[in-house]
Amino acid sequence: METQVNINPAFSQVLRERHSVRKYDSSRKMSNEEINDLLNDAILAPSSSNLQPWRFIVITDQALKEQLLPIAFNQQQVVESSAIIAVLGDLEAYRNVNKIWDSAVEAGLATPEVRDMMVENSRNTYSNFSREKQKEIALVDGGLVSMQLMLAAKAKGYDTVAMGGYDAEKFREMFQIPPRYATVMLIAVGHAAVPGRQTSRLPLEDIASYNGFKGQD
Predict the structure, then answer these.
(1) Whole-model pTM?
(2) Going from the N-terminus, what domains does the chain have, and what CATH number goes with each?
(3) Number of other residues whose CB lies within 10 A of the CB of residue 27
(4) Which residues of 172-181 are buried (b: 16+ CB within 10 A; e: fewer)?
């Protein structure tokens, strides 16, 4: 018996209309409330053991954006977009596990017994990972929340572009970011002045295989 799949046409449209936008209408600003609304949607993303390692620096001050411009290799979206959202990953997110599970108990989503077990397991497991492994987890989860943020933005009528092209060390210095936090990416968000360029995708048969790996030489 075949399973009936319900397709949400609005979400399908968001996926297909989201493109990377690099030219923004600097006269149109987003309020803090609008940005917070996006972030509240973004943080519904999944994360390893629900540790939610993402942290955000929201840069809306124009003078700060001007300082950031050369650090981001003079990409004009830094100063023209409404905000630059820096996504960071907390390598020691397990330190917040009590707060996460206490809130789950308060919301009726977990029993105290489950909380105690999960708190102990998470602390014991993640604290014993190497720094490299902790960073790997933080970067994966940071990617998940970043994509969710960009889709949420498009669904609400904003545009975005993910930026990996910046001097991460100088960025860390500028905002005095402790070593505990990994830099994931910068995301420009705002109102497009010029539509993003559409791009093509590799055919599915080149990138997906069932029940075994099909690579390329």
Answers:
(1) 0.93
(2) 21-91+142-194 (3.40.109.10)
(3) 8
(4) beeeebeebb
